Amino acid sequence: MCRRTYLRLILILAVVILSGRGMACAQWSQPPATDSAVEYQFAAMDAYATTNYNFSAAEPSVELGLADRVAELESALKKINDKEAAARQKAAGRMSARAGGRIHLDWAAFSQSEANKVQMGDNLNGVELRRGRIYVKGSGFHVIDYKVQWDFAGDQVAAKDVYLTVNELPILGHVRVGHFKEPFSLEEMTSAKYITFMERANPNVLAPERHLGVMAFDCSQYENMTWAVGAFASKRGVEAQSDHGATAVTFRLTGLPWYDEASDGRGLFHIGSGYSFRDAWDDEFLGNIRPQEAHLAEQFNALIGNVDYVSEVCGELAFVYGPFSAQAEYIGAYVADINGDAANLQSCYAYISYFLTGEHRPYERSTGIFTRVKPLENFFRIRDCDGCVHTGKGAWEVAARWSYLDLTDEAIQLGRWSNFTVGLNWYLNPYTRLMWNYVYSDVTPDFMPGQPDSVGHAFMMRAQVEF
User: Fold this and answer.
1) Which of 146-150, 215-219, 415-419 bottoms out in mean pLDDT, i.e. has the lowest?
2) Between these two residues, 107 and 452, which has the higher pLDDT value?
3) Is residue 311 included in any domain, yes or no?
4) Boundaries of domain holding 174
5) CB 186 within 8 A of CB 151
6) What is the residue-wise DSSP string for 390-422?
7) Are 320 and 266 in contact (CB under 8 A)?
8) Does 413 have pLDDT greater than 90?
9) What is the CATH number of the domain that holds 147?
10) 3 state SS of 163
11) Is residue 9 part of a domain?
12) Which of 151, 146, 144, 147 is closest to 128 using CA atoms?
């Protein structure tokens, strides 16, 4: 073929291609001249839906696939719920067990006047394991709980909380049997893990501690009132080796006139009272005490002998308003002598505290005591990818306390103690705390006529962890 023939063939092919594209576009954009536009558009849409997207055939398969997936999800959830229900049923048929403990490591340094050394003994600087406790506790059968706790600090292993509790009882609510704290004094009932200062105030030497006994306790429906009453073996003599013989009856009642529900207890007002009537074990009352409110300080022998019975009363007040809190107690003891004489011993304390970082003292309404402080931000230190160090500050609390203990009456001349304590607490997280205390102690030695008042200073620190 000649060159002209090739050019004609290429031209004809280009015309055919362009004509075909134009006809395809015309089928959708313009109706043919012989049909109306409406009829043509409906016909074209029906043909396209039938040949390309058969919706009537696709819908059942889509619905069927979605239903299958929902059924599979419901089946998986049912298996999970059934497994959890079986685990709960199995746990309800036996006692659970959870282990934990605490470590309190203390350091103290003392400064005393010469008169204080003569009267109270020469306090030596030192360090000690104040508490080293291990416990196991658990529950079962929906109504039973228990706790076994032992302290390994000091020269001997000592039983602390060892008890069994039956719950959900009619009228009585809860009944506890074993070795545990008698219901007396807000400061005494609050765990040493949560008290504001390293040691409880001196008035608590008059409060009963842990003894063997049985106790019933409960709270009101809206948890604005609690009560507890129990009978215990009364051992207070320093030479007594077992809890038996003499008995005691102890009672505590608390009320919550104001509790800010909206802030979960950032505002509250607590009132309480307690009473204990006690036979004197071995005709003795009190024993060795530490007037300087420091556990490393020398003990003072305040043993009272020839005692028939002791009647004790307690009054409690506590107030929380955001980061500020205040607490005060009065404890009095009427000590009856076998020969008919009697002595009135009195004590009290008051303190205030403030969280510099905005936290507050949490309160457990069902038992009427203060509980664990939870920092708004735990302490941490991390370095980001840019090399910058970020730090969490934890919770910081400052506090000041005044306490007074009067062991002097017509029949008893053991002296008067007045202490002033300031403290700084750093809560690194809810389970770790560092504490710094300074105690100024002033003693009026009624038992040593002619001697001047003695003064003592104690500087203390504690590292505390709970696990």
Assistant:
1) 415-419
2) 107
3) yes
4) 93-466
5) no
6) EEE--EEEEEEEEEEEEEESSS-EEEEEEEEEE
7) yes
8) no
9) 2.40.160.10
10) strand
11) no
12) 151
